[in-house]
């Protein structure tokens, strides 16, 4: 099914912050038109089918890490302060019950921090965009975040126990 773009929906939301009495919507095979009093908003509909999201969710991640959400968030935030917008990578060295977070910036040096976790899987090093980790952490609510890993090159699943249907898939970066 075709749908309007995110930008169109945001613009439509802004327009509807006021109460309007006359709103009309016309939909054709390739566009949607909103008539809101004297304003006309036209958007092209997105073509194609929604991808099969189940294909990108890994099913063989056997290494499970449990970490305090607030501690993890604060550590990622501190370590990522020296990263740049062009290279916001932080490296996680995951060991038995500990994660070492590191970021390197040729101009500003190196930032590193260790946090205690619950982990007994294979030791590995994996890199992530720090902005994506923080965005994921800030959208979770439980005190404990669960991360399931396969290896340093495979996607990671992030979730929380209180909402088993909510799954984040984090793609690693080369470090």
Q: Descriptors for this entry?
A:
DNA Polymerase III, Chain A, domain 2; 3 helices; five-stranded antiparallel β-sheet; 2 domains; 12 strands; 175 residues; alpha+beta
Summarize this entry quickly.
The protein is α+β, with helices and mostly antiparallel strands.
Q: What's the level 1 CATH class of the largest domain?
A: Alpha Beta
Kindly identify the CATH topology of the largest domain: DNA Polymerase III, Chain A, domain 2
Biggest beta sheet summary: 5 strands, antiparallel
Number of spatially distinct domains: 2
Secondary-structure-based class equals alpha+beta
Rg, Å, rounded: 21 Å
Main β-sheet, spatial strand arrangement = 8-4-10-11-12
What's the average pLDDT? 87
Helix coverage percent: 10-25%
Shape: elongated
Count of beta strands:
12
Characterization of the model:
- This protein has 175 residues and is of the alpha+beta class.
- Helix 2 runs antiparallel to helix 3.
- Strand 10 (144-149) and strand 11 form a beta hairpin.
- It folds into 2 domains: 6-44; 54-170, Roll (DNA Polymerase III, Chain A, domain 2).
- It is built from 3 helices and 12 strands.
- The strands form 3 sheets. It has a 5-stranded antiparallel beta sheet with strand order 8-4-10-11-12.
